[in-house]
Design a protein that fits this description.
Strand content: under 5%
Number of helices: 5
Radius of gyration: 11 Å
Oligomer: single chain
Distance between the termini: 8 Å
Structural class: mainly alpha
Shape: globular
Largest sheet: none
Order of helices and strands: HHHHH
Length: 69
């Protein structure tokens, strides 16, 4: 399934400034993040939880950012 990460992209820019900075903060490379954002590979649970922490997303709202079709 292909996920829509538009809201996540906006939050990344708002909080981190760039996707590259966000990738560093969650412990993955820029290319790895790009592959996740384009649906080539999925975010792991650990990456989702780190992303929520970095971006200030409450866990009960994570589906708005990670599971929108």
């Amino acid at each position: 399934m292909k996920w829509n990460y538009q809201k996540l992209k906006g939050k990344i820019i708002e909080v981190c400034g760039t996707q590259e900075e966000f990738a560093k903060k969650i412990g993955i490379g820029r290319v790895s993040l790009s592959k996740r954002m384009t649906g080539q590979i999925d975010f792991s649970q650990q990456e989702i939880f780190k992303a929520c922490s970095v971006l200030g997303i409450e866990l009960n709202n994570l589906s708005e950012y990670f599971f929108c079709a």
